[in-house]
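Quick review question:
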């Protein structure tokens, strides 16, 4: 094997590889390697779920974020690492607890990487709720004012944002818009309620703007940030110009042959809690400062209405 080939070999890690976004990142990286775009080890990691295709096609390890073995980092030091392994909770209390655990686990991992793999490039998958609720269009220079779920999760990711700001390591923070695909907010707050009640809900007054990205393009833009982004670049990930939630719900209703129905904030809070209400009624239209980087990405989905139709069809096929 030539020195040039050895030099081009990589150890690419995906944390949270069995999760919603991590699965698609892993598939994309595997396809790229099969096509000869890179060579080396694809090391995937999860903590609760085992997916046969991941075990068959990648070097899969069943380790929680907090217990990644030092020996694994020493033996197969990552050259690139995709971090999609946010610890989650299903209540305010459990999210705060998860955030404390996540902060500790991320601080440990950061320290290990700085010692054992200091040249590693890391892309961390965050979210746009970190920016808060605003009528202004949000770019990467907008100050963070986390709301809803992000209030707790900001603490968990702080080791990475601080390391990136200090230039201690090449950490690139990605903040995806509303990620649209099966088994997501769309299924649980739009599709299932529509199937049960015969009407598609519009939460709040419906004027709040939503920026949306498909789960496939979220994964693709994460990889693009690693490949074409700059050192310590933060990037907002989105697929389309923002739409109001009422416009979005009307498209869903049209595709399902239904009508829409308004759900006021008090009703949302009573049914789902204040945190969910804050998320569903948030106004988060985003853009990016990195226009050349974004324009160099070839999207999987280019029509939002077609993406909604495709997502509905996948959910109906699974029913």
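Suggested answer, residue by residue:
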């Amino acid at each position: 094997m030539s020195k040039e080939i050895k030099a081009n070999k990589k150890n690419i890690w995906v944390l949270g590889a069995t999760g919603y976004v991590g699965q698609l990142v892993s598939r994309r990286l595997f396809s790229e390697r099969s096509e000869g775009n890179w060579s080396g080890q694809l090391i995937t990691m999860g903590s609760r779920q085992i997916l046969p295709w991941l075990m068959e096609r990648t070097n899969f390890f069943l380790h929680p974020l907090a217990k990644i073995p030092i020996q694994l980092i020493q033996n197969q030091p990552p050259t690139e690492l995709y971090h999609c392994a946010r610890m989650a909770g299903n209540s305010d209390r459990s999210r705060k607890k998860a955030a404390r655990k996540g902060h500790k686990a991320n601080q440990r991992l950061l320290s290990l990487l700085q010692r054992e793999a200091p040249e590693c490039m890391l892309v961390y998958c965050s979210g746009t709720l970190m920016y808060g609720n605003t009528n202004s269009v949000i770019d990467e220079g907008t100050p963070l004012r986390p709301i809803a779920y992000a209030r707790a999760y900001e603490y968990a990711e702080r080791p990475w944002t601080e390391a990136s700001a200090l230039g201690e390591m090449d950490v690139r923070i990605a903040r995806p818009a509303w990620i649209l695909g099966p088994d997501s907010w769309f299924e649980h707050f739009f599709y299932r309620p529509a199937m049960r009640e015969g009407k598609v809900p519009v939460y709040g007054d419906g004027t709040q703007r939503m920026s949306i990205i498909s789960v496939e393009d979220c994964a693709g833009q994460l990889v693009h940030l690693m490949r074409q982004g700059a050192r310590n670049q933060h990037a907002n990930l989105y697929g389309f110009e923002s739409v109001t939630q009422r416009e979005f719900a009307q498209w869903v209703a049209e595709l399902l042959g239904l009508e829409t129905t308004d759900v006021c904030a008090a009703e949302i809070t009573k049914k789902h809690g204040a945190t969910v209400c804050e998320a569903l009624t948030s106004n988060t239209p985003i853009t990016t400062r990195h226009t050349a980087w974004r324009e160099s990405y070839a999207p999987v989905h280019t029509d939002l209405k077609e993406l909604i139709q495709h997502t509905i069809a996948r959910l109906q096929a699974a029913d």
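Why it works: DSSP finds 13 helices and 13 strands in the chain. Residues 9-179+212-238+285-300 form a domain with the Rossmann fold fold (CATH 3.40.50.720).
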